[in-house]
Amino acid sequence: MNEQTVKIDIRKLEKDDLKKLFLDWGEPAFRAKQVYEWIWNKSVTDFKDMNNLSKDLRAKLDENLEIRPIQLDKMQKSIDGTLKSRFRLHDGHLIESVLIPVPVDDRYTVCVSSQVGCSLSCKFCATGKMKRERNLDASEIYDQVVEVNKQSLEHFGKPLSNIVFMGMGEPLLAYREVLRSIDIISSPDGLGMSARRITVSTAGIAKMIKKLADDNPKVKLALSLHAADDHKRNQIMPINEQNNLEVLMDAMKYFFEKSGKRISYEYIAFKNFNDSIEDANRLLKLCRSFPVIINIIEYNPIDGVEFIKSEEDSINQFAQHLRDRGVMVTVRRSRGKDIDAACGQLANKG
Question: Known catalytic residue: 298?
Answer without folding.
Answer: no
